[in-house]
Amino acid sequence: MESGDGPRDDGFRFGNGRLCFTFTATLGDRGAPAPRERLAVPGDLSRWCVEAGLLDEAPPAGPVTLTAARRLREAIDRAAERVRTGGSPDPRDAEILNDWAARPALAPRLDEGGRLGWHQDGAQVRHVLALVARDAVDVLTGPARSRLRRCADPDCEGLFVDVSRPGNRRWCSMNTCGNKAKKAAYRRRHPQSG
Question: What is the enclosing helix (H) or strand (E) of 85?
């Protein structure tokens, strides 16, 4: 479903473990003064569906679908933050998630190599959004809810599920934010070498 870890040329970030949080990462640098909108135009949403490995080809998404996708993305982010801090999702956010989760979604399937693939006759971007919402509901209501974290990078603040044994992971990805922090710490310890 996801490949690689970290940003690609298009700026999408994959590899943080959960589809719903890969989707919330389409708004990058949430903690920075100017967050980075990775779904700037409808074509970006279609491209994300393909690059996330959910559709082989994505039909064009229109402006209405893009607006709805951004609303879903932000509802997931807000709901996860509320759950992460011990609360319950706002009813308006829960309504958005439930509405999308109730819609027809892509179906899981085994591909020729025995890997997870996705199928939906006449697949559309809306089928992907339904799958994203279902993943968010699963995370927010299942055992993963106790392991919800925000990235310790103050600019990133990306969501992730901490699957480490001790449960003390700090970064959404060691290949991006964790590596950036390690390099900064090294430069502070060795100012002459940087």
Answer: none
- Of 151, 16, 137, 37, nearest in space to 79 by CA: 137
| Calpha distance 148→168 (Å, rounded) | 11
Output helix, strand, coil percentages for the chain, rounded to the nearest 5: 45, 10, 40
Distances 1 to 4, 33, 51, 92, 98 between C-alpha atoms, Å: 10, 31, 9, 29, 22
What values do phi and psi take at 141, rounded to 5? -115, -10
20 near 76, Cβ under 8 Å?
A: yes
Domain spans of the chain? 6-193
CATH class of the domain comprising 6-193: mainly alpha
Count the neighbouring beta carbons within 10 Å of the beta carbon of residue 154: 12
| Mean pLDDT calculated for residue range 14-18 | 79
The residue to which tokens 């990462």 are assigned = 25
From 104, 125, 130, select the one nearest 44 (Cα to Cα).
Answer: 125
* pTM, 2 dp: 0.85
What digits encode the pLDDT tens for the residues 71-118? Answer: 999 999 999 999 999 999 999 999 999 999 999 999 998 988 998 888
Mean of the per-residue pLDDT values for the chain? 85
Nearest to 106 by CA among 90, 123, 92, 94: 123
